[in-house]
Design goal:
The protein is of the alpha+beta class. It folds into two domains: 2-58, no CATH class; 81-325, Acetoacetate decarboxylase-like. It has helices at residues 2-22, 30-52, 96-102, 111-117, 181-188, 246-253; strands spanning 81-95, 108-109, 125-140, 143-144, 148-159, 168-170, 173-177, 193-200, 207-208, 218-224, 231-238, 257-258, 264-270, 283-292, 300-320. Keywords: Signal.
Length: 332
């Protein structure tokens, strides 16, 4: 806008000088003529300076900063893919009958495995899990990729090998940061239904909800770039009660993960590093999850969902034969 004003002044300046010289009542002195020439040259210099400088009002700058803690284990495992996962993980109780309808029929459900960890879990129910996460400082061999966000609803305690023993986690769908080709392609290579998406917040695992009546309320949202294809939103507040023990979360977050069953992802979540222990801490939360995501038919909403808000370091081993995990009981 300012540069436009200067251009108008430059156009009008010679006209004003010409009219001044031509008007017999306005004959100018030599010093005044020098003034016109000097002022014209000054405006010309200012005009070219404006073309090199973009004023703040004329540009939109997308600032993106994260509150995530640095990767504390990259130097310990330089040859492995490591990073941190900050966000919220929570349990969505659904009927065992519905879980059986959605999980591929060739795979069993290890009900005895999750009941060993959750003896009081309601009869006829199954613990689906939602993870809303921000991957930070993911790197290997000194190469670091950009941060990205992801979320989805997963199905743990799946008997993929039909050995009635080894628990796997089926992750059929995922929303991931649009434009992050490395992350998107990595998920698609597992056969995951992957939806490029926009996230709110864009560079963090969640954001505070101002003026909320409930303490520690945070918000997270993901919407697919393709309108209406997929979405997931969470609102969680601090909770005093611990409905599900930490050992349960450690168990299912460390189960080998698969989608189409051709290969498995070995994500080892560590709960004893500096990003998880004091002064950082694990927080119990309670809230609402709303999702439009395969394999659930249509949009669903779950209230009074309990979980944890936390940051963990991880080591990841990709595209491994699922058979390698027969008898695997997790890293921790």
């Amino acid at each position: 806008m300012f540069s436009t004003y200067i251009e108008v002044a430059l156009l009008c300046h010679p006209v004003l000088a010409f009219l001044t010289v031509q008007n017999p009542k306005m004959h100018i002195k030599h010093s005044n003529l020098q003034y016109f020439i000097f002022s014209f040259l000054s405006l010309l210099v200012l005009r070219y300076a404006c073309s090199a400088y973009v004023f703040p009002s004329e540009i939109s700058i997308a600032l993106c900063a994260t509150n995530d803690q640095p990767n504390p284990i990259a130097h310990i495992y330089p040859g492995n893919a490591t990073g941190t996962l900050n966000g919220t993980i929570a349990v969505i109780p659904i009927s065992l009958e519905l879980a059986r309808q959605m999980i591929p029929p060739q795979y069993g459900i290890l009900e005895h495995a999750y009941r060993a960890l959750l003896p009081s879990f309601p009869k006829g129910m199954y613990p689906a899990v939602v993870q809303a996460l921000h991957d930070h400082e993911v790197q290997a061999f000194g190469y670091k990729i950009d941060d990205f966000s992801r979320t989805g609803i997963e199905f743990p305690f799946v008997d993929m090998l039909n050995d009635n023993q080894t628990s796997f986690k089926w992750a059929p769908s995922m929303l991931m940061t649009a434009g992050h080709d490395i992350a998107l392609n990595g998920a698609m290579d597992y056969g995951t239904n992957t939806f490029p998406a926009t996230f709110d917040p864009g560079c963090d695992a969640y954001r505070a909800v101002p003026n909320s009546k409930k303490p520690g309320t945070t918000y997270f949202s993901a919407r697919s770039s393709e309108a209406g294809a997929a979405s997931l939103t969470t609102v969680f507040s601090s909770a005093e009660e611990e409905v599900f023990p930490l050992e349960f979360f450690k168990n299912f977050t460390n189960q080998p993960t698969f989608a189409d069953g051709k290969t498995c992802d070995n994500m080892i979540r560590l709960y004893n590093t500096s990003v998880t222990t004091a002064p950082n801490q694990i927080q119990s939360v309670k809230g609402t999850v709303r999702a439009n995501l395969f394999p659930f038919p249509g949009e669903k909403e779950w209230k009074n969902v309990y979980g944890l808000r936390l940051d963990t370091a991880f080591i990841e081993n990709n595209y491994l034969p699922c058979e390698n995990f027969r008898g695997y009981a997790g890293h921790e």
